[in-house]
């Protein structure tokens, strides 16, 4: 199992900002995940992969794909206290779920 | 409330690797947190701050401080599939807890 977090590479986020947005997405999608899948993922070491997207519409398209596949997912908007405008969409987490299902949604994207 | 994640700046982790380690630490400390505090933190927008440390011993010292303050925390070791040697300590998450308690442990560290 794995969780893939798609983060926007076009916003010029600093490293710490990026990491916080990825963590936010990760936790939010985890909370959408059933107890059994959560336990299995954690038992396997909670594998996480961070990949790149460019632009808000790409994240929304991927979220729609995740929804169609029935995979837990979460889109994050930044509160906008620093660096970004309030409400800027920054990241999407897909899974945890079986690798092949997550890859149907995000397998074509490059590592961040 | 906030959660501060301390990540090692001395390992030369790539941006995606760093983000994954921070997310790992964030989720693990969250799981050590009581239900009431979790809900309050999420209700406030689950504020996360990422800061820098250098070296494993600094993370262990901070973890000991967090323990002494009774703050939920989690130290992360990398599985070592990529970039780092297996078992490398990469990050420590402190909280979620009230800002002043988290700052007692990590308030002196610089933003990542």
Protein described:
Two copies of one chain form a homodimer. With 112 residues, chain A is of the alpha+beta class. The first copy, chain A, has a single domain, classed as 3-Layer(aba) Sandwich (Bit1). In chain A, 43% of the residues lie in helices and 24% in strands. Chain A has a four-stranded mixed β-sheet, sandwiched between helices. The longest helix of chain A has 17 residues, at 15-31. The A-B interface holds A 5, 7, 14-20, 22-27, 30, 45-46, 48-51, 79, 111-112 and B 5, 7, 14-20, 22-27, 30, 45-46, 48-51, 79, 111-112.
Task: Break the fold down into its secondary structure elements and pairings.
Two copies of one chain form a homodimer.
Chain A: E1 2-8, H1 15-31, H2 35-43, E2 48-53, H3 56-69, E3 73-77, E4 89-97, H4 99-106
Helix pairs in contact in A: 3-4
Briefly, what is this?
2 copies of one chain form a homodimer. By secondary structure, chain A is of the alpha+beta class. In chain A, 43% of the residues lie in helices and 24% in strands.
- How far apart the termini of chain A lie comes to 19 Å
SSE pattern of chain A: EHHEHEEH
Q: SS-based structural class of chain A?
A: alpha+beta
Structural Rg of chain A: 13 Å
Level-1 CATH class name of chain A: Alpha Beta
**Largest beta sheet of chain A: what is the strand line-up?**
2-1-4-3
Mean pLDDT of chain A: 95
Main interface: chain pair and counts? A-B, 25 and 25 residues
Protein name (chains A, B): Peptidyl-tRNA hydrolase
Family (chains A, B): Belongs to the PTH2 family.
Subcellular location (chains A, B): Cytoplasm
Function (chains A, B): The natural substrate for this enzyme may be peptidyl-tRNAs which drop off the ribosome during protein synthesis.
